[in-house]
Specification:
Structural class: alpha+beta
Helix content: 40-55%
CATH superfamily: Cytochrome P450
Radius of gyration: 22 Å
Strand order of the largest sheet: 1-2-8-5-3
Number of domains: 1
Number of strands: 13
CATH architecture: Orthogonal Bundle
CATH class: Mainly Alpha
Oligomer: single chain
Order of helices and strands: HHEEHEHHHEHHHHHHHEEEEHHEEEEE
């Protein structure tokens, strides 16, 4: 097909288009998208593994990423090789181990505050609430924002993130054509955000209790490069904005998909409620992974060939882009029995394969916030199950809405809820 037609198909009907091409050409094929050139799409786990484990000097993921101009030149998603490894070393420790447990209470309170205003017994979209929950969670846990800085960032970030998502793939709009052009407005928004982040950085550096703080900003302010120099303000700002862009909308969309899926699978929902009441989480964690499999919000992990590269019996010329397609791998019947069926039991007491289940990418560039995102989804779902009964529905599944980088339910995850009436736990016997 002509490039224009392929481009429209990949934007408007991406999942059906990908499936048609896989049926015709197999697990490796080329599409041509306006502004991207040849784009080789791969879905075979063996080839996915080869790409994820390729030397970082051969396949780049950062400096040719469409996100680099959106997130900044220091962004972890926009750099490669030694520079990427060093930044990853600085940023990874806060997202591991017991520190994650320290964020659970904060996220639970944020969730309870948000859902206190949910309407009952009438249909509404949960998307807005999920975005507010994930936004505040990142601003508090990652940015350490409170007070006026928190208020301003909550006001600025949603529109800026959405605008950036759309501009990332519309590279022809990334030029200043006057004060009201999309790119000029985007740059003004980023300047406003940077000014607030500079204030937060200054406040952190002046905080006498900095070493006791658990937010990621506090740790970044104290971090040093291998040569002993501290991170500069523009480095810290770019990483904070990256964590926001990568962790705010994506997790919110995944939670909206979770509500959409569970309302259409009341048997799973009923079991989750019982498990939550008993203090368990095995099925809930499996459900989170199954939602990510059946409704991945990021369809591709991308790489760029810095030299000719052999893959699957073909030589990809230098300059070729490679897309590792979760949108295909997750639905491969050779990897998942009845792949279109929503079945969390497939992940009960069994972790998904590293190269078949790739919602967070893989290799040395696997999302550093994966543990945080999983924990956040687990806490939010637990609170929802504790507080509400969700009315099941036999309405058709919500469609996929492509939002420039991520996909979301096209109706925002519609829900009808009522407050749960829980019987109090039995007390000690009364002697008469």
């Amino acid at each position: 097909m002509p490039t224009a037609v392929q481009t429209v198909a990949m934007v408007a009907r991406q999942r059906p288009q990908l499936e048609r091409l896989r049926r015709r050409y197999g697990p490796m094929f080329t599409v041509r998208i306006a502004g991207f050139g040849p784009f080789v799409i791969v879905s075979d786990p063996a080839l996915v593994k080869q790409v994820f484990t390729a030397p970082p000097t051969v396949l780049h993921a950062g400096d040719h990423s469409p996100l680099r101009t959106i997130l900044g030149r220091h962004s972890l998603l926009g750099i490669d090789e030694d520079r990427h490894l060093e930044q990853r070393r600085l940023l990874l420790p806060p997202f591991k181990g017991q520190r994650m447990q320290g964020y659970e209470e904060l996220i639970e309170q944020i969730t309870r505050d948000e859902i206190a205003s949910w309407p009952t017994d009438r249909e509404f979209s949960v998307a807005g609430s999920m975005q507010r929950i994930t936004l505040r969670a990142i601003l508090r846990a990652i940015f350490g924002a409170t007070g006026e800085e928190l208020r301003v960032l909550e006001e600025l970030m949603p529109a800026h993130t959405e605008q950036g998502s759309r501009l990332a793939t519309a590279t022809y709009l990334q030029r200043d054509l006057g004060p009201w052009s999309p790119w000029a407005r985007f740059l003004r928004g980023r300047a406003e955000i940077d000014a607030v982040l500079d204030r937060l950085i200054a406040m952190a550096k002046a905080d006498p209790e900095l070493e006791e703080r658990s937010d990621v900003l506090a740790l970044m302010v104290q971090a040093t490069h291998t040569d002993g120099t501290p991170m500069a303000n523009d480095e810290i700002r770019d990483q904070l904005v990256t964590m926001m862009a990568a962790g705010h909308e994506t997790t919110a969309h995944q939670l909206s998909w979770a509500v959409e899926r569970l309302r259409r699978h009341p048997d799973v929902l009923a079991r989750l409620v019982v498990e939550a009441d008993e203090g368990g989480k095995t099925l809930r964690e499996a459900t989170i992974r199954e939602v990510q499999r059946t409704r991945p919000v990021i369809f591709f992990a991308g790489r760029y060939c810095m030299e000719d590269y052999e893959l699957g019996g073909h030589v990809l010329p230098r300059g070729t882009r490679v897309g590792l397609a979760a949108a295909l791998t997750h639905f491969d019947p050779d990897l998942f029995d009845e792949p279109d069926r929503f079945d969390p039991d497939r992940f009960v007491d069994r972790l998904p394969d590293t190269y078949s289940w790739i919602p967070f990418g893989g290799g040395m560039r696997r999302c550093i916030g994966a543990t945080f995102a999983h924990m956040e989804m687990d806490v939010v779902l637990r609170v929802l199950l504790e507080e509400f009964d969700f009315a099941p529905t036999d309405a058709p599944a919500e469609g996929w809405r492509f939002r420039g980088v991520a996909t979301a339910p096209d109706r925002g995850g519609r829900a009808v809820v009522s407050h749960r009436v829980r019987r109090p736990a039995p007390g000690p016997p009364v002697l008469v």
